[in-house]
C-alpha cells in the first residue's frame, strides 16, 4: 500500500512540474481594475509566472477550505469533549462506589468483584 501511495505522489509531482514548466509566462496581477485605479489613484501591479498564480490559488483555496471545515466542526469537537469529561467523571464514580462496596468484605472477594 505504501508503494501505491508513493507512485501516486510521484505521478502528481511529475504532473505539477510539467504544468509549471509549460506555464512560465509572466502575467500581471492587479489589486483593482484599471478604471477604478485611475479614479482612486492607487495602482498595485505584480508580475508573476502563470503557474505561481494557478498553484497559489489552489493552495489558498485548500487553506480556506481547511479553516472553514475546522470552524464548522467546532460544535462536534465541543460535544465530544463534554462527553469525554462526563465519561471520566462516571468512571471515577464507579471506582469510588466499588471501593465503598468492598469495604467490609474479605480482600479476596473484593479483588474478584473488581475483576468482574
UniProtKB/TrEMBL annotation:
Classification lineage: Bacteria, Pseudomonadati, Pseudomonadota, Alphaproteobacteria, Rhodobacterales
TM helices/strands, residue ranges: 46-68
InterPro entries reported for this sequence: LapA_dom (IPR010445)
Organism field: Seohaeicola nanhaiensis
Keywords on record: Cell membrane, Coiled coil, Membrane, Transmembrane, Transmembrane helix
Coiled coil: 80-107
Name of a matching Pfam family: LapA_dom
Stated name of the protein: Lipopolysaccharide assembly protein LapA domain-containing protein
Domain Lipopolysaccharide assembly protein A: 43-94
Amino acid at each position: 500500500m505504501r508503494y501505491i501511495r508513493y507512485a501516486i505522489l510521484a505521478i502528481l509531482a511529475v504532473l505539477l512540474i510539467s504544468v509549471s514548466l509549460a506555464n512560465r509566462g509572466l502575467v500581471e496581477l492587479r489589486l483593482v481594475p484599471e478604471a477604478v485605479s485611475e479614479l482612486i489613484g492607487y495602482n498595485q501591479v505584480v508580475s508573476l509566472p502563470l503557474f505561481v498564480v494557478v498553484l497559489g490559488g489552489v493552495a489558498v483555496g485548500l487553506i480556506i477550505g481547511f479553516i472553514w471545515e475546522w470552524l464548522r466542526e467546532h460544535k462536534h469537537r465541543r460535544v465530544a469533549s463534554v462527553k469525554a469529561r462526563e465519561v471520566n467523571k462516571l468512571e471515577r464514580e464507579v471506582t469510588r462506589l466499588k471501593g465503598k462496596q468492598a469495604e467490609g468484605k474479605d480482600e479476596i472477594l473484593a479483588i474478584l468483584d473488581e475483576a468482574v
